Amino acid sequence: MNRSTLLFDADELPRIRATLARPEFAAYWRSAREADLADDERFLRDELKLEQVNVDLVRASNILQRSAFVHAVAPDPAHLAVARLALNRILAFRRWDWILEAGTDTVGVMRNGTTSIAVVLGADWLAPDLTEAERDAVASYLARESAPAAARAVGGMNQPDQVVGWGMDPAAAGFDAAYRAVNFSRWPRILDVNNLRIIATSGLAAAAAYLHGRHPQAEKWAAMAEASLRLFVSRLPADGAFPEGPDYWHFTFDYYFVSAELLRRRCGIDVRDAYDFPAMARYLQLVTLPTHDTPNGCINVGDAFRAAGAESLAWIGRHFRDGTANQLALQPGILRLEANSAWAAIWFDPTVPARRSADLLPDRVLFPGIVVSRSGWTVDDAVLALRSGEPENHEHADRNSVFYAAFGERLLNDPLKASYLSSHPLWLLRLTAAHTTVLIDGQGHQYHKGEEGTNASQAAATLEDYRTGRDWMCATSDAADAYRRAGLPAQAVQRTVVFLKPDLVIICDRLTLTEARPVEARFQVFNNDGHGTVTADAAGFLITRPHATLQARTAGLAPLTVTAAQLDLPAEHGVYPYAAVASAAATSHEFVTVCTAAPAGTAHGELTIKHDGSAWQIRGTHRDRAVQVSLQTGNNLRPIVTI
Question: pTM score > 0.85 for this model?
Answer without folding.
Answer: yes
